[in-house]
Amino acid sequence: MTVSTFRGPVSADDLGTTLIHEHVFVGHPELDLNLPHPEWDEDVAIETAVGGLERLWELGVHTVVDLTVLGLGRDVGRVRRVAERTRVQLVASTGYYTADVLPAYFQTHGPGRLVGGPDPLVELFVRDIEVGIADTGVRAGMLKVVTDQQGITPDVRRVMEAAATAQRRTGVPVTTHTHAPSRNGRDQLEFFVSRGVAPDRLVIGHCGDSEDLDYLRELMDAGATIGMDRFGMEHVLPDSARIATVLTLLQEGYADRMVLSHDAAFFSRVTPPSWRAANVPRWNMENISRRVLPALLAGGATEEQVHQLMVLNPARVLTPSAPVE
Questions:
Q1: Residue 136 has pLDDT above 90, yes or no
Q2: Burial level of 99, CB count in 10 A (0-12/13-18/19+)?
Q3: In this model, does residue 1 exceed pLDDT 90?
Q4: Which residues share a beta bridge with 94?
Q5: pLDDT per position as a tens digit, 165-215
Q6: What whole-number distance in Å separates Cα of residue 184 and Cα of residue 124?
Q7: 149: how many CB neighbours lie within 10 A of its CB?
Q8: By three-state DSSP, how is residue 103 classified?
Q9: How many CA atoms lie within 13 A of 128 on its CB side?
Q10: Structural domains present in the chain
Q11: Positions modified as N6-carboxylysine (predicted)?
């Protein structure tokens, strides 16, 4: 089986070391047009991203999944300018990032709504995966959904329903944003499994924000993969605590059910580069290669376990399963 990338399909065996939860650029189209961010310069940002990805390649990282979906300023044409100039394989994603409500368009379009018609979310997600995103021809290799402190609101439920439908039709995996203090990965897992999505098609994201080992074990024991995917986000939890959790779970035999990443970006107007440099200087895509993996090995992890976390698990997750409808 192959995985869709910006440069076309790639064998899962050729993905290599993979960061499965990152962002190239995070923006907001309306704000970007009407309230431009003083630190944003597209040409400079593209050079920064190309340089950063090339450094990752030299560190041994060969694939990065860009989880920038609608709601986060996805611009695949812009990211393709980066993908064309780096040896790193970039994987695009589809989904809708909202923790509460969708834009007004979705309130009037869809079954039983004012304008009616099929659910545009389902059409969008499936087209992005099977045909390509916008007019780029770049096909999405992952689905992304969100639940945060607000829980599964009516509009979040609608996004998750559409993602479940798209997953069953295409076999592409689903990754999630969770609110770790609420332990709402449980709700996500229950929701998707009840709608015919196999647990091994799910990455319950941001589990690295939690030190509740019972909660993490529960998700993995049910068959899901957990995302230990915010290394460097030390304003949420220090890396030392994140590393300690991973080491404990490795010792308990869970090496095949975790993936590591940063949730970092080369530019985000939510937390712009100047803020990151001053407050979270380790929050970048090189952190795992330079600091986290050496710390795991020093703490007792084996080279085989690291290979499982960084190569085998992402390849398994990203490989599409057979459609079920």
A1: yes
A2: middle
A3: no
A4: 143
A5: 999 999 999 999 999 999 999 999 999 999 999 999 999 999 999 999 999
A6: 26
A7: 10
A8: coil
A9: 28
A10: 2-318 (3.20.20.140)
A11: 144
